[in-house]
Amino acid sequence: MTAIISRLSAAVLLCMMLAACSTDDTPDTALDDGIDFTDRGRDVPSFSADSAFAFIEAQLAFGPRNPNSEGHRAASAWFTEKLREYAGRRAVFTQEFEHQGYDEVLDMVNIIASFNPTASDRIMLCAHWDTRPRAEHDDDPDARDTPLMGADDGASGVAVLLELARIMADNPPPIGVDIILFDGEDYGEEGDLANYFLGSRYWSANPPVPGYMPRFGILLDMVGGREALFPLEQYSARYAPAVQQEVWSIADELGFERFLNEPGMYVQDDHMILNEEYGLPTINIIHQSRQPGYGDGTWNFPPWWHTHGDDIEIIDRDVLGEVGEVLLELIYNRL
Ligand SMILES: [Zn+2]
Known about the structure:
Blueprint: E1 4-5, H1 7-21, H2 49-60, H3 70-87, E2 92-100, E3 105-115, E4 122-128, H4 151-170, E5 176-182, H5 198-205, E6 217-221, E7 230-232, H6 234-239, H7 241-254, E8 259-263, E9 266-267, H8 270-278, E10 282-286, H9 317-333
Parallel strand pairs: 4-5, 4-6, 6-10, 7-8
Antiparallel strand pairs: 1-9, 2-3, 3-5
The structure holds zinc ion (ZN).
Zinc ion is lined by residues 1, 132, 153, 186, 306.
């Protein structure tokens, strides 16, 4: 994810968006009204935080996974193979595309896996799998131009999704679940939004299944860092409030206090593209911190954000586990 809009400028943007709503078909917050989240009393499989942690380690073993790097090529092949193992070969699709980056043409790939593929009633879960080619917030100026490992920013969301895929392989979900690993979320230089969200933008403009519209989407980004707090990300609250409230109420029922029922930042991330360019109500579960850092003054990204501190040492299995358990309860018992 990238820069945050301050509360003031977010209010300005909101006015612009409302103005846009009155003149075109921009989706409004009513889209996800009417989704039934009844507790159905079903058994819910258990999430293995150790397995999710191992999926982070496996990604880091490829090195940084920034576009056009060796780690990027190797990791994408591995994700495709793992998802074929869990979803079946015919239920995995890679969407390859090129993007003109900074002095290079990038070879990009979104990786998509469908569980219970014949169900017409579906949800979508996603994360970005690429990692950042630079670490501009690192304390060491000499290290700011080198790619980072992205244990949290990249690998953690993918790891939770791979663990869900492993579970769904053995426990067919009662609804259709599509997993999308987006490429190129984090390529852009700070402030250059045209070079962020490359995979979700391409997917939104070129949906592999024309007319595809699941009930909603959930984006995971930075869901493994120690001391994670998950206040209510504000684009999610705008575009998919019912989904966000249900996810947070499940967390509350399960006793996971890091899901805070209070407003967080407006975070520009892949879900913003899915909401605004594709019209799919999508929430973002993303770590926000009260520690000093880059943010809106109240909430900030964690201290390792876009530094070389974003490595395996800052990963907490309990955070991965809580996010995974909330999603399993949603998938198997609320829809
Ligand atoms: Zn990032």
